[in-house]
Specification:
- The protein has one domain.
- Helix content is 71%, strand content 0%.
- Helix 3 packs across helix 5, helix 3 runs antiparallel to helix 10 and helix 6 runs parallel beside helix 14.
- The longest helix has 29 residues.
- The N terminus and C terminus are likely disordered.
- It is a multi-pass membrane protein.
């Protein structure tokens, strides 16, 4: 008979990754977590200039589809021997299709479309508005309370977008406006996808979630890619640089990025993982300016700072929460505990058991 402190019971494949005691028991050194965050910011930030290189050859939809297919293959190889992962993907593949549409296929296609009409730096900054849309979606869908800090954060984000677009070194055309709208719509889609994932997959293992999402997205985009390529064939030449860019997108920014992101959540918590929002636009702007030679304007820097301030107000807002049945019960002081032994493995007897014992 095991004691309450032993951990020899078999692990539940469906809920093992939300076991807080197990997740934080092997908490790595803070420096390792910080290094993982910096690497993740660089991976996801590098996606914007890489898309800029690949999109002319593959098209916006084709670039998204190829990177997702590459990521799906990489994750499938990693999980080849994990029967529990494949079983979880098979059992809920329909739900993964909706998640893939909201969280991967639609937003990544919109981002690729936006980068063609804008530039990598602006698209990376506009993508940082995702937490602002998430606040609104979570309030409407999950009933989360909107605090004054969140209102200020959303307002700062809107103001930053206005500054960014008003001083953009691009012609004020309909195409520019549509590209900016596509980038903001991608941020909204990410917000919807993240909120849906929180509701539909609260106990799903990270590897199962990543693999199911990528497989569903790759399958979902097959007819879309065929139709888009037939209607508007890519105009750019198929170069070695474009092929290398989309391969790095799939292996690094998509497969590696998601695995690293879930690793940070598992070992450092979701709050630490959410701070990558600050790093992605910085990496995207730095690579866009330094690698692609995009102009560094005052509006770009000011818009980045204002949107970053808004994201900071949203990220570090910790409103008071109401205790739910999932929260651990408060353990009374020794002087208040009953001397009656626990029943059926429970840590403390219920009030009903105390009454029956006394009678």
């Amino acid at each position: 008979m095991s004691t309450p402190h032993q951990t020899t019971s078999p692990r539940n494949p469906g809920s093992g990754d939300i076991d807080a005691g197990r997740a934080f028991a092997d908490k790595p050194h803070p420096g390792l977590v910080l290094s993982a965050l910096l690497l993740l910011g660089a991976l996801w930030g590098s996606a914007f200039p890489l898309i800029k290189i690949a999109a002319p050859a593959f098209g916006p939809v084709g670039t998204t589809h190829v990177r997702l297919a590459v990521a799906a293959v990489v994750l499938a190889v990693i999980a080849a021997a994990r029967r529990d992962v494949w079983r979880g993907v098979h059992q809920r593949f329909g739900a993964f299709v909706l998640l893939a549409a909201l969280n991967v296929a639609v937003p990544l296609t919109l981002v690729a479309t936006a980068i063609v009409g804008l530039n990598a730096s602006m698209a990376a900054i506009l993508n940082a508005t995702t937490p602002m849309f998430t606040i609104l979606v979570a309030a409407a869908w999950l009933g989360q309370r909107i605090t004054w800090r969140r209102v200020l954060g959303v307002a700062a984000g809107v103001f930053g977008v206005v500054i960014l677009l008003g001083g953009a070194p691009l012609p004020p055309s309909t195409g520019t406006a549509l590209a900016a709208g596509a980038s903001l719509a991608a941020a909204l889609s990410y917000a919807l996808g993240g909120t849906y994932a929180r509701r539909a997959f609260p106990d799903t293992a990270p590897m199962t979630l990543a693999l199911g999402q990528q497989l569903a997205a790759a399958a979902l985009l097959i007819p879309v890619t065929v139709a888009a390529t037939w209607a508007a064939p890519p105009r750019g030449p198929m170069t070695a640089a474009a092929i290398a860019a989309v391969a790095v997108l799939g292996v690094g920014a998509t497969a590696g990025g998601y695995l690293l992101y879930f690793w940070i959540i598992r070992h450092a918590g979701p709050v630490a993982a959410s701070t990558v929002t600050f790093l992605v636009p910085i990496a995207g702007v730095g690579l866009g300016v330094g690698w692609l030679g995009e102009p560094l304007t005052a509006a770009l820097v000011l818009g980045l700072l204002v949107i970053g301030t808004g994201v900071g107000l949203l990220t570090f807002d910790t409103p008071r929460t109401i205790r739910t049945p999932a929260d651990p019960p408060a353990v009374p002081r020794p002087s208040q505990q009953s001397v009656i032994p626990p029943q059926s493995g429970s840590s403390l007897p219920s009030s009903g058991s105390r009454i029956r014992k006394r009678s």
